[in-house]
Amino acid sequence: MADRTVDVLIVGAGLSGINAAYRLQERSPGTTYALLEARDAIGGTWDLFRYPGVRSDSDIFTLSFPFRPWRGEDSIVDGAHIRDYLLDTVRESGIGDHVRVSTKVLAADWSAERARWTVTVTTGRDQVEETYEARFVFFCSGYYDYDAPYDPGFAGVEDFAGRVVHPQFWPEDLDYAGKRVVVVGSGATAITVVPAMAETAAHVTMLQRTPTYVVAQPKQDALGNALRKVLPARAGHLAMRSKNTALQWTFYQACRRLPKQMAGLFRKGAVAGTGSEEVVDAHFTPPYQPWDQRLCISPDGDLFAAIRDGRASVVTGHIDRFVEKGIRLADGEVVEADVVVTATGLALKLLGGTRISLDGTPVDLAHTYAYRATMLSGVPNLAFCIGYINLSWTMRSDMTARLVARIVNRLRDSGADTVTPVIDGTPDSRPLFDMESGYIRRGAHLQPRATSDYPWSMRQNVVVDAWATNRADLDDGLAWSRSARNRTRTSAGTGASA
């Protein structure tokens, strides 16, 4: 079992897991680790999603890693190129030697006496059960369910004569050329799928219950590409990353502080893109303020262009049920379709659904508080990684990876073998992800809690979070201790445990 006993076990080989592994190698040399991935390939989200047009709605300079420059021309990048970037990062950094794919983590149990996690996994096609042991476990598995998307439970699906698909499980054999397509939803996935499918479909209808703010953004960053021609690769990359972070932060603050003015700007942009005030007022004017829910990006205004050209349209209404020829709305209208794409959103699943226990006693994550959005109160030697909702995921995940490396180093150097977040009392709290997006609201009861003050806060503000996290006092909110076995060894003169 020697190859399954490590200092740090990282769960998930997507953006966050690869980032965590790199920072561990860089900042904690000599630390042994393994990177476990449930799927058959690395890449996480960017390997899972294969629907038409799949891309990031964050610019690549802030989504990519600060330590590995993006060299492509586009700023808004498709999923295949992001997946290739991740594969290249793993190969060039040596992280690939530590990755074990087709290895799904089922449970993790902490032994207080031994100060070790025993992690149960299944591996390979035959799902053979194995165990790993680790001093520290770092979950980089995101926060949604890879196995099951959100299902609203539409009535009458079995009556529909066409084909129903979900973007999370896009079928390779789906031929929609020349067919009528209805995409149910108005989030980032729908905004991506509609113009991509409209290139070959007879017509694509985006059927939404509630409008979303959609903002056109250039696919290429002219200033960025000019800067990168005169600066060294790393300097150019970091300059673009800093510029875009500042712009995104300013944009978000403007939306929160001047919502009416920003909503007016978005309306003007949508009218210019679609060429129709009537379309915008009916279908692109949400009943909420900007950034109450996440904004959607349309690269080069591709969604607006598809609507303006007549290749796509939008219908806003409530679904009654599926019928043979399509979808019937509550007002009796039938939106006819040959193919229906249910871009209805994600289902929240924390820590990849792993069962966490302390000496055999299960841990309910909803009864914990999140220490710097990185660890859980009362749970020793365990971290998790989440990204921002209002900025690029990596802006937060890299911050977390560097903090975890600091914590691991102190465990190694201090003689302690246990670090546990401890919160005093039961302060007023809210769910860790505090936004009105559907999948977040539906999963609020599953989330750890957060307060308004550090170290138990996550502000969704990269400036404030970076200041608080990068300068974190590791004695504020964290209790460092030695296990009984470690104390026994020390008193016997053998020194701190490895």
Question: What this model shows, in words?
Answer:
Keywords: FAD, Flavoprotein, Monooxygenase, NADP, Oxidoreductase. Pfam families: FMO-like, NAD_binding_8. It comes from Mumia zhuanghuii. This is NAD(P)/FAD-dependent oxidoreductase. Its cofactor is FAD. By secondary structure, the chain is an alpha/beta fold. The strands form seven sheets. Strands 1, 2, 3, 4, 5, 6, 17, 18 and 21 form a nine-stranded mixed β-sheet that branches. Strands 7-16-8-9-12 form a five-stranded parallel β-sheet. It is 31% helix and 22% strand. The protein has helices at 15-27, 45-48, 60-63, 79-93, 188-197, 222-230, 233-257, 259-274, 277-283, 302-308, 393-414, 438-442, 462-470, 484-491; strands spanning 5-11, 33-36, 99-100, 103-111, 116-123, 128-139, 163-165, 180-184, 203-208, 214-217, 296-299, 312-316, 319-323, 326-329, 334-336, 339-342, 355-358, 361-362, 370-371, 375-376, 382-384, 418-421, 430-431, 449-450, 478-481. Helix 7 crosses helix 8. It contains 14 helices and 25 strands. It has three domains: 2-146 and 347-491, 3-Layer(bba) Sandwich (FAD/NAD(P)-binding domain), CATH 3.50.50.60; 152-209 and 317-345, FAD/NAD(P)-binding domain (3-Layer(bba) Sandwich), CATH 3.50.50.60; 212-308, no CATH class. Residues 493-498 have low confidence and may be disordered.
Supply the key terms.
498 residues, alpha/beta, FAD/NAD(P)-binding domain, nine-stranded mixed beta sheet, disordered C terminus
Kindly name the structural category.
alpha/beta
Number of spatially distinct domains: 3
How many E strands?
A: 25
What is the CATH top level name of the largest domain? Alpha Beta
CATH topology of the largest domain: FAD/NAD(P)-binding domain
Q: What is the CATH-assigned architecture of the largest domain?
A: 3-Layer(bba) Sandwich
Shape: globular
- Rg, rounded, reads 24 Å
Looking at CATH, the homologous superfamily of the largest domain is: FAD/NAD(P)-binding domain
Mean pLDDT comes to 91
Low-pLDDT residue spans:
493-498
Q: Tally the helices: what do you get?
A: 14
The amount of helix comes to 25-40%
Please state roughly what percent of the residues sit in beta strands, choosing from under 5%, 5-15%, 15-25%, 25-35%, 35-45% or over 45%.
15-25%
Give the end-to-end Cα distance, rounded to a whole number of Å: 17 Å
How is the biggest beta sheet arranged? Answer: 9 strands, mixed
